[in-house]
């Protein structure tokens, strides 16, 4: 029997009603097709997740990688994290400056250091040591994708969750943070358990008002609800989002479980997303 | 998740959560539990004088917290006040007396969380603030954020007028020499002593050995339940000796090193990377809630949940310990030979211990 594979991508839960997101949705759909082909060819969940997130980072279509926003000090400080299940290997970088693909740096932390989270200049040192691609012309590289929405805690992230044919799960998340974010602010994206999670049960990636996701321990909460409440994947994701709403926040969560069920939900206006279901069917859009 | 479980408990017991709390809180109107780090702390490894000094520091911290709580102080105030004392005490790996990075600097992490609102604040990589726990609290109460790191955190501390300290303030000779020993072992150059640090002096070899074993993951943490029934948890640390590259451990990670919710609060100390990957603090609280629903007493539920996590960690190669309050009931667990710890509460005798058989 062939084991199921599935994946979900998100391009952020920050959506403005008056704007068209045709380009983003078309891009996500194309990435979903690419991901489906990689998985059909036996691709490893971590390789697939990193490849797709990197494509989103390089596209400048989302608030991550090239589309990131400068912080209040005028600097581009990027965050990313990755986790693999069932092994629970994890890596994350916070406030990384100068590199094309923060998710690739997070993977290096996971694979090549004894640590999980590295912040600031040290993250750049590790990325450089491992020859992660640097940005040649930082002054002209960034093309901020974020549109100010007037809120103090804004949203903008990309993420990917994958189940591969060997039953390996991976969650990966990358962000350029919030528009005009305070210098040194770290949101949920590089926090294992908040913005990203993967274990034997499920892989999760979150996007939204990061502070609420941290206080709700949102990504790990999806797994906890499945484990302790016996929730289905959809129920668990909804429960985690309801908890965030109760704290006063909004955003979205994508998840895939070990059986190939997928979930993509949000309590914001919408979430740019694409899904490859276990039967190969692809779905992409702003709203579900 | 806690609220959903609470809903189940409502149905199961047909009683509001407040009653569930008071059921045992008759004699537990306030409660406090403290840790000062876990590690290979074994009988005979420490001289009597040093051991007595640790016990008396824990006792003093306990008395401060207990006096505040019995006087009706707010839980957040108490957690901050007690951790400030431990941060200032050079015996513990937090604030003054923290370990050094491979670059010869002190880089401090801290976090705090309030259970009823789940408000939280955290800082990482702080080098010039005397009390990182106070900065974590300021992030929680005076910024829209949960976590600030590095220079940005220092800038916020300056805006809030928090007390600064230079690197010489945090300096202790034995921590410096422990770092020197470690970087040499790692084949790295020994960094220059911080400006303003005292001239080198001899440190007893045995003291260095002891420190290496006990402070591979030293941390301080406090969990309290105040007289209004709110649980608050906080943790503060200097991290690991000779850490590199801006490594961040579990201490400032909400859900890993610190967690507080409606009825549970927890502070962890250990090999931080494992504690992050197992989401230790929140996971133990979630499991305790579930076990409570399975007819266990509060104390049993918390103890089973904590012990299970320690076993899981050990199987994966992680070690350390936790202290927690579950509906005010103090519980500790560790998979190391020792953990500096203390607890007290209304109607209970103060408890101060180091070794696992106490």
From TrEMBL, chain A:
Gene3D superfamilies: (Glycosyl)asparaginase. It comes from the Bacteria. InterPro entries: Ntn_hydrolases_N, Peptidase_T2. This is L-asparaginase. It comes from Glycocaulis albus.
From TrEMBL, chain B:
InterPro entries: Ntn_hydrolases_N (IPR029055), Peptidase_T2 (IPR000246). Keywords: Signal. The keyword Protein biosynthesis does not apply. Residues 1-20 form the signal peptide. Gene3D superfamilies: (Glycosyl)asparaginase (3.60.20.30). Pfam families: Asparaginase_2. This is Isoaspartyl peptidase/L-asparaginase.
């Amino acid at each position: 029997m062939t084991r199921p594979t599935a994946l979900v991508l998100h391009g952020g839960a920050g959506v403005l009603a008056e704007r068209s997101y045709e380009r983003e949705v078309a891009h996500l759909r194309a990435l979903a097709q690419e991901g489906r082909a990689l998985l059909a060819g036996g691709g490893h969940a971590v390789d697939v997740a990193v490849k797709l997130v990197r494509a989103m980072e390089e596209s400048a279509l989302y608030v991550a990688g090239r589309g990131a926003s400068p912080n209040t000090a005028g600097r581009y400080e990027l965050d990313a994290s990755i986790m693999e299940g069932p092994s629970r290997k994890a890596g994350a970088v916070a406030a990384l400056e100068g590199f094309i693909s923060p998710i690739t740096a997070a993977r290096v932390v996971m694979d090549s250091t004894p640590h999980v989270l590295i912040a600031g200049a040290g993250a750049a040192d590790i990325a450089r040591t491992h020859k992660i691609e640097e940005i040649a012309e930082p002054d002209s590289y960034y093309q901020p994708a974020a549109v100010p929405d007037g809120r103090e805690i804004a949203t903008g992230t990309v993420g990917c969750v994958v189940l591969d044919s060997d039953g390996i799960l991976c969650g990966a998340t990358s962000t350029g943070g919030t528009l005009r974010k305070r210098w040194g602010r770290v949101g949920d994206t590089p926090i294992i358990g908040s913005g990203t999670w993967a274990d034997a049960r499920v892989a999760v990636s979150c996007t939204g008002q990061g502070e609420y996701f941290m206080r709700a321990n949102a990504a790990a909460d999806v797994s906890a609800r499945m484990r302790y409440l016996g929730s289905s994947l959809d129920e668990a994701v909804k429960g985690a989002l309801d908890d965030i709403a109760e704290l006063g926040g909004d955003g979205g969560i994508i998840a895939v479980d070990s059986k190939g069920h997928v979930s993509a939900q949000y309590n914001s206006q919408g979430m740019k997303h694409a899904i490859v279901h276990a039967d190969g069917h692809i779905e992409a859009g702003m709203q579900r | 998740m806690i609220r959903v479980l609470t809903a189940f408990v409502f149905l199961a017991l047909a009683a509001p959560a407040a009653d569930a709390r008071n059921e045992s809180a008759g004699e537990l109107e306030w409660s406090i539990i403290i840790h000062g780090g876990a590690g290979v702390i074994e009988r005979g490894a420490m001289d009597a004088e040093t051991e007595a000094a640790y016990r008396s520091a824990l006792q003093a911290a306990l008395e401060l917290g207990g006096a505040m709580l019995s006087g009706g102080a707010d839980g957040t105030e108490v957690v901050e006040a007690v951790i400030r004392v431990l941060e200032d005490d050079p015996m513990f790996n937090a604030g003054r007396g923290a370990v050094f990075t491979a670059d010869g600097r002190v880089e401090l992490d801290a976090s705090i969380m309030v259970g009823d609102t789940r408000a939280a604040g955290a800082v990482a990589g702080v080098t010039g603030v005397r009390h990182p726990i106070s900065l974590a609290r300021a992030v929680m109460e005076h910024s829209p954020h949960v976590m600030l790191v590095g220079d940005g955190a220092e800038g916020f501390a300056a805006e809030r007028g928090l007390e600064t300290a230079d690197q010489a303030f945090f300096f202790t000779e034995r921590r410096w020499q422990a770092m020197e020993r470690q970087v040499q072992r790692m084949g790295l150059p020994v960094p220059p002593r911080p400006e303003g640090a005292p001239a080198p002096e001899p440190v007893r070899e045995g003291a260095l050995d002891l420190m290496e074993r006990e402070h591979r993951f030293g941390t301080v943490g406090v969990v309290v339940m105040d007289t209004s029934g709110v649980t608050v948890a906080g943790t503060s640390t200097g991290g690991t000796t000779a850490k590199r590259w801006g490594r961040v451990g579990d201490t400032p990670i909400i859900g890993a090193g610190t967690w507080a919710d409606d009825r549970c609060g927890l502070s962890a100390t250990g090999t931080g990377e494992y504690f992050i990957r197992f989401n230790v603090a929140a996971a133990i609280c979630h499991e305790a809630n579930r076990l409570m629903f399975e007819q266990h007493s509060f104390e049993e539920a918390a103890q089973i949940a904590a012990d299970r996590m320690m076993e899981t960690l050990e199987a994966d190669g992680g070690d350390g310990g936790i202290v927690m309050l579950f509906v005010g009931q103090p519980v500790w667990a560790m998979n190391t030979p020792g953990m500096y710890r203390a607890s007290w509460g209304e109607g209970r005798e103060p408890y101060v211990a180091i070794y696992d058989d106490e």
